[in-house]
Amino acid sequence: MQISNTTIPLRKIRRRANPRTYRNPGEFAELRASVKLHGVIQPILVRPIPPDGDYEYEEVAGEGRYLAAWEEHGPDYPMPIFIKDIDDDTADTLAGVENVHRADMPPADEAVWAANLVGRVKGDRDEAARILGWSRSKLDKRLALMNCSSLVREALTYEKIQLGHAELLATLAKDKQDKLLPVIISEKKSVSELKKTIEAAACSLEGAIFDKTDCAACPHNSSLQTEMFGEAIATGNCTNRACYTEKTDRKLDGIAYSLKEEYPIVRVIRAGDNHTRIQLKVDGPTGVGEEQAKACHACQNFGAAVSGLPDSMGKVYSGQCFDTACNQKKVADRIKAERDAAAAPAAKRSAGKPAAATKGDKSSAAADKPVTSISESEKVKQYRTELWRKALRKEVAQNAEQANAYLLAIALNGLSRNIGGDVMGKFFEKLTEQKVSSTLQGCLTAAHTLDEGRRQQLTIGLTVAAIDGMEVSNLRELCRYHKLDLRSHWNLQKSQDFLEMLTKSEMKVLADELGIRKALGDNFAKLFNKPKPEVIAGLLAVKDFDYTGKVPKILNY
User: Fold this and answer.
1) For 464, which of 41, 173, 386, 549 is 20 to 30 Å away at the CA?
2) Strands 13-14 and 278-279
């Protein structure tokens, strides 16, 4: 619905939360004077809303004209409006775009709104700049303001400091910003004066996260400058900002790379990225619920953040959701499900019988909530890892030459420490039917007396023991090199324990992936209306279905 050149009494229009938190008093007084004399000439943008008292529409863009008309002409003023039927995200975008193109919108408000927009487009700054009509450079500068402390942003909003002050302060930790701010205001320090102050205090080697071995003899180390020159900045600082930044970025990238095997997505978070992620929670005001949280762990937008912010440089934040719009929707769904469950009439529960799950029942809503992939829960991870170990042990034990090559590679990589003496002891006792000596001398004698065949078998045992003790990342790497084919080691019909780890929703995903849904046809829905034990039994006994060679993606390396 789009209607222009229409008017409606102001009292029928509800105000919407605005990205702008401050209006210049002088400029707003001019707007009021114009509206008093000429009325509102340019229509404001509104959207229709469900009945809410007297309200029929919600203001989307044009709050200044709305306020000026209300104060000068009252609630019955026939307000020119342009009606557009839009959703919440579109309304937020249009409200922000309308404000950022007004010359008097405070830069701090622009920064907050731009950061939220970047979050809604999943961190794509180029797309955010396109929506705003800004250059990428302007967007980056505004987002950098998000690293300002709340006191600095407030001072910028109320024009106590200039934009240049805030941009310089954003490079510092927030506690240092708050210490400098009163000095800047009271002494009316210029931007150039502040710049000199920060240059003198920047690039502290004490707070650096990279290896500082090379810095000890570097001419840019202020400790050496103090010895060479009469005037120099305080010791323990680096005067080569470019080199300092490059080393810091390299370290941050290294931390992020080390987490790649553990999470679907890992990002380095820098100034302005505050609103592009959110901590995934099960409960509380921002919780998504237990079942949804399990599903989220398998999402490609779930992972870890490495901080590139001054006051938490190098810190890793796990359990991060990088799709903030999706997260907000899941939270809203959980809250609605709980509200509906609380409102369900007690009369619907039969006396003396277990309560049947109603449409609004919280547990039912959580259990029936669809998921798109099987969650990488800790139980599933442990099951998968043990499957890899068992399959590798079996294949390596059948090829002595390969076992020997793997053992050499493991030793060369320093991973022979993973071979447990107790595991080798069990191999030795089983092979020779002798007890393992507790002394090195006894072990040397026992090994020397073994024939060549048994020594070869124990070498295979060493490799198997190394596989048992390997960390998951190295185990995965060995699986890939070996080109381990799990199809000959896993079969759903022999894996009831795997199905018991899954929710019914995840079992639906599994049935789709392996082709069981298609094989069941109309009986699929009937099966999943049954209790979980019966669903498992049904999935393991599908008539004429070939289970051979079908392995779920979640179990692959």
Assistant:
1) 549
2) unpaired
* 17: β partners: none
Decide: helix, strand or coil at residue 180: helix
CA neighbours within 13 Å on the CB side: how many for 394?
Answer: 12
- Alpha-carbon 163 to chain mean position: 31
Residues near 550 by beta carbon (within 8 Å), at least 6 away in sequence: 487, 492, 514, 515
Sequence ranges of the domains in the chain: 2-99, 261-343, 378-472, 492-555
CB 348 within 8 A of CB 364: no
Pick from 15-19, 366-370, 509-513: least confident: 366-370
Task: List pLDDT tens digits, range 389-420.
Answer: 999 999 998 898 899 899 989 888 888 877 76
**Which tens digit of pLDDT belongs to each residue from 131-152?**
888 888 888 888 888 888 989 9
Is beta strand 265-269 parallel, antiparallel or unpaired with respect to 278-279?
unpaired
Taking a C-beta distance cutoff of 8 angstroms, is the pair 420, 469 a contact? yes
Secondary structure of 308-325 in HEC code, one letter for each residue? CCHHHCCCEEEEEECCHH
Is residue 356 exposed (0-12), middle (13-18) or buried (19+ Cβ within 10 Å)?
exposed
* CA–CA distance, 411 with 392 (Å, rounded to integer): 18
Query: Which residues have CB under 8 Å from 238's CB, separation 6+?
Result: 203, 204, 205, 208, 215, 218, 220, 221, 222, 244
In angstroms, how far is CA 263 from the centroid of its own chain? 10
Helices (H) and strands (E) in the chain, counts: 26, 9
Reply yes or no on whether the pLDDT at 308 is more than 60: yes
CA distances from 316 to 19, 248, 269, 290, 358 (A): 31, 15, 10, 23, 42
Q: What confidence tens digit (pLDDT) does each residue in 364-376 have? A: 444 444 556 787 8
Residues 419, 422, 425: CA angle, nearest 5 degrees? 100
Supply the angle between the helices 472-482 and 378-397 in degrees, to the nearest 10.
50
CATH match of 2-99 with 3.90.1530.30: yes
- In this prediction, residues 231-248 reach a mean pLDDT of 74
- What pLDDT was estimated at residue 445? 87
- Give long-range contacts, CB 8 A cutoff, 24+ apart: 356-360: none
333 to 42, 135, 215, 287, 330: CA distances (angstroms) = 38, 36, 53, 10, 5
State residue 367 phi and psi, 5-degree precision. Answer: -70, -35
* Average confidence (pLDDT) over 267-286: 88
**Of residues 133, 132, 129, 180, the one with CA closest to residue 152:** 180
Digit-coded pLDDT (tens) for 53-104:
778 888 888 888 888 899 899 999 998 888 888 888 888 777 776 666 555 6
Backbone angles phi, psi at 46, to 5 degrees: -130, 165
Burial of residue 306, with CB atoms counted within 10 A of its CB: 0-12 exposed, 13-18 middle, 19 or more buried = buried
Q: What is the pTM of this model?
A: 0.44
